[in-house]
Design a protein that fits this description.
The structure holds two protein chains of two kinds.
Chain A lengths: L8 E5 L2 E5 L9 E9 L12 E5 L3 E5 L6 E11 L11 E5 L3 H4 L1 E6 L16 H7 L4 E5 L5 H4 L3 E2 L13 E8 L6 E10 L4 E7 L2 E8 L22 E6 L8 E12 L2 E10 L1
Parallel strand pairs in A: 9-11
Antiparallel strand pairs in A: 1-2, 2-5, 3-4, 3-6, 6-7, 8-17, 10-17, 11-16, 12-15, 12-17, 13-14, 13-16
Chain B lengths: L14 H4 L19 E4 L6 E6 L18 E8 L7 E9 L6 E6 L7 E8 L2 E2 L3 E4 L10 E6 L10 H8 L4 E4 L25 H12 L2 H7 L4 E3 L22 H16 L18 E5 L3 E5 L19 E2 L14 H14 L4 E5 L18 E2 L7 H13 L5 E5 L5 E7 L9 E7 L9 E2 L6 H6 L3 E15 L3 E9 L10 E9 L6 E2 L1
Helix pairs in contact in B: 2-4, 3-5, 6-7
């Protein structure tokens, strides 16, 4: 029975590529899948040097990629119960776009886009304080205060978090804009999410925008705050999306982030950019 | 008897092949492949399963124990004496990398009710010599002396209880589940699992190698045949049938189950009939200890319905959960329930013993008569199925029924009532719950927090929160249960103590302290 992986798809987004493939049936002796990656647009030889992960599932998030965009190619290889490697899948290539944090102009930011929670409130591991200080799941942060990140809790808990009372926490961020950007892009970078994944709902001045699906992450960001630590077990993810005309106002604005489903997210930074 | 030469036929190359004549000290270029020891299990009245798994580097990350991707021939011998001057059976088996280089030899043609010695050989390497035995003949009335163990979490501490259990020289070891724990390494434990949460076959193989490499584990495996069943941590905390802990079946969890089942079989002395195929795995089975006892070994995970009032996996105790009483909810599944009911109905053995995974008796955790707080993972969460089993043995007059349990990391001695809703109803059986070998660390002697459970549940006669194992002897006259404890597992080498003894006279189920 063939143990070559088929159906490999690569979906590229800012700083990440999501790979999926077809699982081989249980009747083959396949134990797990090895994912190999190289910064090229063509096929390459899978080896231990270009192995980026192993899984028994059919999905892999390659994350923390260059801010400036890049080309990445992938092969998925099976390992069977005897330890033998199958033939590599056909190569798939993904073009990772550039982040608005390098192509655009920052209008307003909270935190630094640096893979760390550390500048946020209660980081890196005092999550119990978030529940203690916001027992009703409501957080308010005003950009007018000096150091916005220092008042913004590093986690936004959700219904999957028993320690936070199993609530969909809502953070309301208020800020002033002197002028409305002509091509606004919101950037939300996360240091980590939980193995539950989840959904982040966003309202801009009372209008809902497309909710963001949260990847199933490392579940380590409640205790570790820097993706540069190779043992931290963090899985960063990135959301950059345009805001429709008319959503933002000149003067006072209010954005509400609600962790509607799943477990917490750990903030890296949030910003509004002129694309 | 003439000395029989142990013929060597090995497919190892290099230095090992060059040393085929006679014994040689293992050199660095020819490492010992028996680092995981040997084991035996599933005895019959004329045979037993012999097991080993080859590994030169148990903790190799790929789970293959440092072995090459090649079949290796393994020689085996069974003798009636320790020096192998009287070899009674011998042969060759193949250690296949597809099965993790494990070997399962089903030996037959032995005499009933006898002890034997066995060993394996690969190249110039001899395995440790170990003891095993056959079951008594069908009409024999031999006493049964067994030890029961469960919940040997590596990170909890040292497996001192295994050592003391081995010293008792039992007839058989009953393993009641949580032989390994699947979790990622926790640096706050006394010891730390290398690696992360077990998901792939490679992960689980490596985890079993860690546990099999322990000296005390090997000591107990080498002392007697084992009869094993599992609980949840051989796959994932609180898994139930097709459902993972989080409650929603997924393709990935099916795959994980298949991996874990295969790794369990590869690492246990089980017969061919228990070899898994995908997620099909035959673990429930029966043994007859002559006319003294029938052991109905149960599988309380594979065929279960999802735990009642499932909330995604964060709480397992409920005060208000009417779903528990749904008469269609099953712990054992239809096929196993029918098999057990039929076996209990037909059995003519004096004692019925049910080695199984989770707390059988009623156990109310909330003080006072108004509220109940019951576990949904134990049999209280599958009451109709539990009551059917109990009523079956009671109706057939099997008042000498002993349910053996692990799981809860504490020792319990319980009287099983004809009706748990009526504390005045008669006792129809006994449940002996062994404490954990290591899980939960050292524990607490004379733990006062256990008092409310004792007060709330009159049929629960004794609870203890130290680590250890259960020793039990079934004879024509009665059952003697000895709860053995060790004061510490966070440091090695602790002594053993007989914490409590109960006698159960034959035909009169009830716990008498002795």
């Amino acid at each position: 029975m063939s143990t070559t992986v088929t159906g490999v798809k690569a979906e590229a987004d800012v700083r990440q590529v999501q790979l999926t493939w077809d699982l081989l049936p249980l009747s083959t002796m396949v134990d797990h899948y090895r994912i190999h990656a190289a910064q090229t647009r063509s096929s390459f030889t899978p080896s231990d040097d270009n192995l980026i992960g192993t899984t028994i599932g059919d999905i892999w998030l390659h994350s923390g990629l260059a801010v400036d965009g890049d080309s990445w190619s992938y092969h998925v290889v099976t390992v069977d119960a005897a330890g033998r490697h199958g033939e590599p899948s056909k190569v798939v290539t993904a073009e990772v776009p550039r982040s608005v944090t390098v192509t655009g102009e920052a209008i307003l930011t909270v935190g630094s886009f640096d893979g760390k929670t550390l500048e946020f409130h209660h980081a890196p591991d005092q999550y119990a304080e978030i529940a203690a200080q916001h027992p009703d799941g409501v957080i308010d942060v005003d950009q007018a205060d000096d150091d916005t990140a220092a008042q913004w809790p590093y986690l936004l808990p959700g219904p999957g978090d028993a320690w936070a009372g199993r609530m969909a926490y809502a953070l309301t961020w208020t800020f002033e804009l002197e002028e409305v950007p002509t091509a606004p892009v919101m950037a939300i970078w996360l240091v980590d999410t939980t193995r539950l994944g989840g959904v982040l709902e966003i309202e801009v001045n009372g209008e809902s925008v497309e909710p963001r699906e949260l990847v199933k992450g490392g579940t380590a960001g409640s205790r570790k705050g820097d993706i540069a630590d190779p043992d931290a077990g963090l899985l960063p993810s990135y959301h950059e999306f345009t805001l429709a005309d008319g959503l933002l106002d000149r003067g006072e604005n209010s954005v509400v982030f609600t962790l509607a489903e799943g477990g917490w997210l750990a903030w890296d930074a949030v910003g509004v950019f002129e694309a | 008897m003439s000395r029989r030469t142990f013929v060597v036929a090995s497919s190892l190359t290099g230095a090992a092949a060059a040393s085929l004549t006679g014994l040689q000290v293992a050199a660095a270029a020819d490492p010992d492949p028996f680092t995981l020891g040997v084991a035996s299990g599933d005895p019959s009245d004329d045979g037993v399963v012999l097991w080993t798994r080859l590994a030169v580097d148990p903790l190799a990350e790929d789970g293959h124990g440092g072995m090459p991707t090649r079949k290796i021939t393994v020689e085996w011998q069974v003798a009636s004496d320790e020096k192998f001057e009287s070899v009674v059976r011998s042969g060759r088996a193949v250690a296949d990398p597809a099965w993790g280089h494990s070997v399962h030899v089903e030996v037959d043609g032995l005499e009933a009710d006898r002890w034997y010695h066995y060993r394996f050989r690969v190249g110039s390497h001899l395995s440790p010599v170990a003891r095993t035995r056959t079951l008594p003949a069908a009409d024999a009335t031999t006493d049964l002396h067994a030890v029961a163990v469960s919940c040997s979490h590596y990170e909890g501490g040292w497996f001192t209880a295994y050592h003391h259990a081995a010293e008792e020289r039992p007839d058989v070891v009953l393993e009641l589940g949580d032989y390994i724990y699947e979790g990622a390494g926790n640096e706050d434990g006394t010891r730390t699992h290398p690696g992360s949460t077990c998901m792939s076959l490679a992960d689980y193989r490596r985890r079993y190698a860690l546990y099999h490499a322990e000296a005390e584990t090997q000591e107990l495996h080498h002392a007697a045949p084992w009869i094993v069943t599992w609980d949840d941590h051989e796959i994932q905390d609180n898994w139930a049938g097709i459902h993972p802990k989080e409650g929603v079946p997924t393709d990935e969890f099916e795959r994980r189950r298949a991996n874990a089942m295969r790794a369990y079989y590869e690492n246990m002395p089980l017969r061919k009939q228990s070899r898994p195929s995908g997620v099909k795995f035959q673990l429930f089975r029966r043994f007859s200890w002559g006319r003294t006892a029938d052991l109905h070994v149960l599988d309380t995970r594979q065929y279960r319905d999802l735990q009642a009032c499932h909330d995604g996996g964060s709480t397992w105790w409920f005060t208000d959960c009417p779903e528990r009483d749904d008469p269609d909810r099953t712990m054992l599944g239809t096929r196993q329930t029918d098999w057990l009911v039929e076996g209990l109905a037909k059995s003519e053995a004096q004692w019925q013993i049910l080695p199984q995974g989770v707390f059988f008796s009623h156990r109310d955790g909330a003080p006072g008569p108004e509220e109940e707080s019951l576990s949904v993972d134990g049999w209280d969460g599958y009451r109709a199925n539990r009551n059917l089993i109990r009523d079956t043995w009671a109706e057939h007059g099997h008042l000498n029924t002993t349910v053996l349990t692990g799981d809860v990391h504490k020792a319990f001695a319980n009287e099983i009532l004809a009706d748990f809703d009526d504390p005045g109803s008669p006792t129809v059986g006994i449940e002996l719950v062994t404490t954990s070998v290591t899980s939960a660390g050292d524990g607490v002697a004379n733990d006062p927090s256990l008092q409310p459970v004792l007060e709330e549940n009159e049929h629960i006669k004794w609870i203890d929160n130290l680590r250890g194992y259960l020793s039990a002897t079934w004879t024509r006259d009665g059952l003697t249960a000895r709860f053995m404890t060790v004061p510490k597992v966070t440091t090695p080498g602790a002594p053993v103590n007989t914490e409590k003894v109960f006698h159960v006279p034959a035909g009169e189920p009830g716990l008498h302290e002795g």
